[in-house]
Amino acid sequence: MGHELGHFKHKDILKNIASSGLMLFIMFALFGNLPVGLFSEIGVQGGAHITIILFLLLSPLVSFVLMPLFGLLSRYNEYKADEYGSACESKEALVQALIKLADENKSFPLSHPLTIMLYFTHPPLSERLRKLGMDIPYYHA
Question: Half-sphere exposure of residue 86, counting CA atoms within 13 Å on the CB side?
């Protein structure tokens, strides 16, 4: 509970809304200002309907490029919420709660750094425990 209160205290939900808005702004700016020559190069006549189709087809690529930045922000927020949560009760209580949650969710505590960078919004358990100053061999990377 302390971890979630940390998200509230640090206004992480507002940060996530703002970062999502920024990502949408970047994507709309990018697709709204496509060069006219691009449409002739792909053999279609430019227009709003073609721009929407290109947005739907290519926005996953733009999202893939931007997601490591937003994942980094999210993981930072998770570490800060862990710090706050550990101060509410104790580091040991948070560690036990994180381990129990990982066990119940059958999550794997170790991941390759590239996988973490590209896909994770939450740090893996081993990293969270290390940041809390706990060195548990089974969960250590």
Answer: 17
pLDDT of residue 76: 93
Phi and psi, residue 9, nearest 5°: -60, -40
**What length does the chain have?**
141
Helix (H, G, I), strand (E, B), or coil: what is residue 118? helix
Section 7-28 average pLDDT: 89
Within 8 A by CB and 6+ apart from 4, the residues are 81, 85
* pLDDT tens-digit map of 82-106: 888 888 888 888 888 888 887 887 7
Q: What pLDDT, on the 0 to 100 scale, is given for residue 141?
A: 43
pLDDT at 136: 61
Question: φ, ψ for residue 11 (rounded to 5)?
Answer: 60, 40
Q: CA nearest 132: which of 92, 97, 75, 100?
A: 92
Are the C-beta atoms of residues 62 and 54 closer than 8 Å to each other? no
3, 84 in Cβ contact below 8 A? yes
Let me know how many helices (H) and strands (E) the chain has, helices first.
7, 0
Map out the domains of the chain as residue ranges: 2-139
